[in-house]
Design a protein that fits this description.
Layout lengths: L2 E8 L9 H12 L4 E2 L3 E4 L12 E9 L2 H16 L22 E5 L6 H8 L12 E4 L2 H10 L6 E8 L14 H5 L1 H5 L1 E2 L2 E2 L4 E2 L9 E7 L2 H13 L6 E9 L11 E10 L5 E5 L3 E4 L5 H8 L5 E8 L5 E10 L3 E3 L11 E2 L6 E2 L6 E2 L4 E3 L27
Helix pairs in contact: 3-4
């Protein structure tokens, strides 16, 4: 009798060539010799986790088999020969100040898919190993968290990513990637992929900067679009040879990590160095980072009393890192009236003593005139594409 099971893997990344997607692909190639696999899944998790991997992604696949014991024996052999040797691998980044942690791989095997609740916890907050549903079989350490979360993903919303890997002798030697840049710049327009290039900065977003096996990853709403774009780029003579590619179903651009949008009133506003904005509201403390482009610009425009709508992810310190922002109602600017004779702004004589023109000395009652403030953006504002999170859904999608 054919039975189904779930396999999950996480935390084999390290900066000298370690890559969880490639390690998982190697495992899938081995399993495909004797088993039928459903389409593999790539699941991005909470980005603030202290020991998160470089790409913050875990992998899972559903597999058909006739004998659990036989498959578990294969996984156990694979764990000891291919994955356990990666434990403890670590190297420092030359492009990031984030503290690096040793790889701590985790492999899980479930007879049945666990409840989705753990997945939603793992994309929205820090979770511990003790919170994870207990697998029927598991190997390893910290990576069990992400591996289990990936298995728990209910896939209510999804996109696709086609990932291509470099041939082994180009990995770990700091050999620059060779990709047809002209074709890559037009993938989103020509093949209906998304987040391949940021049109604001012209930065390509398909290739990692570190020395890992991934050559590029192409994201699309439709699987066939991801395949078409990937194969076209691989066929170009201006792209280096690869060891192949695989298309994953992903939770990228789904907003799975966010709760419902909130509305709050601005209570205070602080603009920090480089333009980062701290917004205190009647419900939350929000941060719009300097790198967030128009979102930061809108945040700087706000005034105390403005009613805003927002969403973002809570960090370890409970501040909300804004991922989208919109003005619902802006308080007006208050200005003194102009003198009817001189057209100069009247000035206060003193508390409750009225106003006086600084030129002709004409007086009038104390009052303010209201001038509407029109926001620089009418709808939702998000960071530029190259600063958006993997999980963030563009607000202009249907």
């Amino acid at each position: 009798m054919t039975i189904m099971a779930w396999i999950g893997l996480d935390d084999t990344d390290h900066l000298d060539g370690g890559c969880t997607t490639k390690n998982f692909d190697n495992l899938l190639v081995e399993l495909e010799k004797n088993y039928i696999l459903e389409q593999p899944r790539l699941v991005r998790l909470w980005p603030f986790a202290k020991q998160r991997t470089r790409g913050n992604a875990a992998l899972t696949v559903e597999i058909k088999c006739n004998n659990h014991d036989e498959l578990i024996k294969i996984l156990d052999d694979w764990w000891h020969s291919q994955l356990l040797p990666l434990k403890g691998k670590i190297s420092e980044s030359k492009i990031s100040t984030r503290k690096q942690f040793p790889a701590d791989p985790g492999l899980v095997y479930f007879f049945e898919k666990p409840n989705e609740e753990f997945y939603y916890s793992a994309v929205s907050r820090e979770v511990s190993l003790t919170e994870a549903p207990t697998a029927d079989y598991s190997w390893g350490g910290n990576g069990i968290i992400g591996a289990t979360a990936a298995v728990c993903w209910p896939m209510k919303n999804h996109t696709y990513e086609a990932i291509s890997w470099r041939i082994p002798h180009n990995v770990g030697k700091k050999i620059p990637r060779v990709i047809d840049l002209e074709m890559a710049k037009n993938l989103d327009e020509d093949y209906d992929t998304f987040m391949s290039r940021d049109p604001r900065s012209d930065n390509l977003m398909i290739a990692p900067r570190g020395d890992c096996p991934v050559l590029f990853g192409l994201r699309a709403k439709l699987e066939q679009n991801a395949i078409n774009a990937c194969e076209a780029l691989l066929k170009s003579p201006k792209t280096e040879q690869t060891s192949g590619y695989r298309v994953f179903v992903t939770n990228q651009a789904t907003d799975d990590h966010l709760d419902e949008d909130k509305q709050s009133i601005v209570k205070s506003l602080t603009i920090k160095s480089r333009g980062t904005v701290i917004i205190e509201t009647d419900s939350d403390k929000l941060i719009a980072f300097a790198e967030s482009g128009d979102l930061k610009n809108l945040a700087q425009w706000l005034k105390v009393g403005d009613l805003i709508q927002f969403n973002g992810l809570k960090a370890l310190d409970n501040t909300v890192h804004l991922e989208r922002l919109m003005v619902i109602e802006a308080v007006p600017n208050l200005t003194r009236p102009s003198c009817l004779k001189c057209d100069r702004k009247m000035k206060s004589i003193g508390r409750s003593q009225g106003l006086k023109c600084p030129i002709c000395k004409a007086t009038c009652e104390d009052r303010w005139d209201e001038t509407p403030r029109v926001p620089p953006f009418n709808n939702w504002v998000q960071p530029p594409l190259d600063s958006m999170r993997h999980l963030a859904k563009p607000t202009d999608w249907n």
